[in-house]
Amino acid sequence: MKSKILKYFFVAGLGLTMIFFSCTKLDETVYTELIAEQFNPTESDVASVMGPIYSNLRNVVSGWAGLYDVIEESSDAIVTPVRPNGWDDGGMYRRMHKHTWTPEEYHTSALWTRLYRGVTHANRALYMIETGTLPIATNKENYIAEIKTARAFYYYLLLDNFGNVPIVTQFDVEEGFLPAQNTRKQVYDFVESEIKANIELLSDVNDATTYGRFNKWAAYTILAKIYLNAEVYTGTPQWAACLDACNKVIASGKYQLEPVYSDLFKTNNEGSTETIFAVPYDDIYGDWLHWHMKTLHPLNQSTYDLQESPWGGSCAIPQFINTYNSKDKRLAQTWISGQQFSSGGDSLFCNMGADKMGLPLNFINFVQSADYSAEDEGYRMGKYEIKMGAKGMLSNDVPFFRLADVMMMKAECLLRTGDAGGAATIVSEIRARSFDNPADANVTGTQLQGNSAYAYGFVENGVITQPDHSGSIQYGRFLDELGWEFAAELHRRSDLIRFGVYTTKTWLSHRPNGAYRSLFPIPQDQLNNNTNLKQNDGY
Questions:
Q1: Phi/psi zone of residue 538: left (φ > 0), alpha (ψ -120 to 50 degrees), beta?
Q2: Using CA atoms, how far apart are residues 33 and 94, in angstroms rounded to an integer?
Q3: Which domains does the chain have, with CATH numbers?
Q4: Is the pLDDT confidence value at 42 over 90?
Q5: What are the angstrom distances between the C-alpha of 466 and each of 454, 458, 469, 487, 506?
Q6: 464: burial class by Cβ within 10 Å (0-12, 13-18, 19+)?
Q7: N or C: the chain end with fewer CB closer than 10 Å?
Q8: What is the tens place of the pLDDT at every residue in 52-95?
Q9: What angle (nearest 5°) sits at the alpha carbon of residue 194, between those of residues 165 and 188?
């Protein structure tokens, strides 16, 4: 069970969320909502007012068509191929894989709506505090700083995924308000300025009172993220600024690497010393963390004595799996492979399609294509512990920011500014927990500057028939290191974009389909409803 304070902040917000949004359609972006007349808050209600800002992130991160689906499914590491049971969701996942999405795509439309829902929650909370509707006698400026930082986090996600979006900071707007569109550079500047203006008012504590909330170190991590990708966002790199933000987090001494990599993703992982900012989940409240359902074969219900049958879909792309060192414990700690058994030890056998019917259910590192795969094809994502007897939702918290992330950002800054040896020292330290032999964990600066081990190319019937000849990847080995450390942690899309891979390389059934796809389209329903919006270039 999560800490008392954590439960209070996340669960207290559920009631208010229902007051304001129980009838909200998914395809609407609501920039303001009336404050319920029957709700007369006092200072003791601050958690209820701020709670929805945070609880909304659960659906943003792992809800159907959340960040996991748009970031991981559009990358070179994870795919949801068509299975013999026919699950294809209207081709949505294949369109994400092939980069053939359109402005009508449900995935991106849903993400846009959920992100702006978080902005609206923040704007409403600010309005209530600043107008005295929610009277606060003490720490008022600190609450305001936290809310503005949370809003900046939502805009960081909008900046990364959509780029040119409206910046809305008011709650008390007229009915039918249609905001003007801002450029990606303006959104970047807004995120940077909001965090810098509020960061010193945030708590510097890392304990149960700040878990799952934005403290000073989480705010510095957001800054590091935007600086890391500044050249993508604005055209101007900011390696020195990124390095400075990373150093502040590291020098705080508030966080330490977990000795065991898999402990980061346990069911009860809220005590992790490495997590800087987490999105908490708890299955007793029907939360959205259903990644085990999305990846496991239906027969794996008996493996974990699950209360529901999984759907048998997503898996690792074999080309990505082939980049791992066989001695790297992160391979087995991230991916489920091999013969599958029931909890009682009985072997499981394929039962979906005629081509494998009755054969052992043995997850193999082979996928024919995104358009068809047998039920045993592809390693399944098992990074987040699947507890015995789990429901359709898990209780693991998602470590959105963690110390290894900050350390790897620092390493990348050093690598790109000429200190490859310093970068290698950091990368080797992170790798050390995942190799039994220390010598296998060590890397050199020269290695990090080398090409990726990923064999890019188009796959037919599980074989690369058209190798990718678009050239080597600068610092490609470092990109591999990011992939091994942060697989299935919502990193891969932005990493591939930053390293020039996302729209230029070929993998599995994906071919490059335009550089403009480094941004998702403004959803068509938003364009229809707001004449101030202009579609992103290329769509």
A1: left
A2: 36
A3: 1-202+509-539 (1.25.40.390), 291-299+310-391 (no CATH)
A4: no
A5: 14, 5, 9, 25, 9
A6: middle
A7: N
A8: 999 999 999 999 999 999 999 999 999 999 999 877 788 999 99
A9: 40
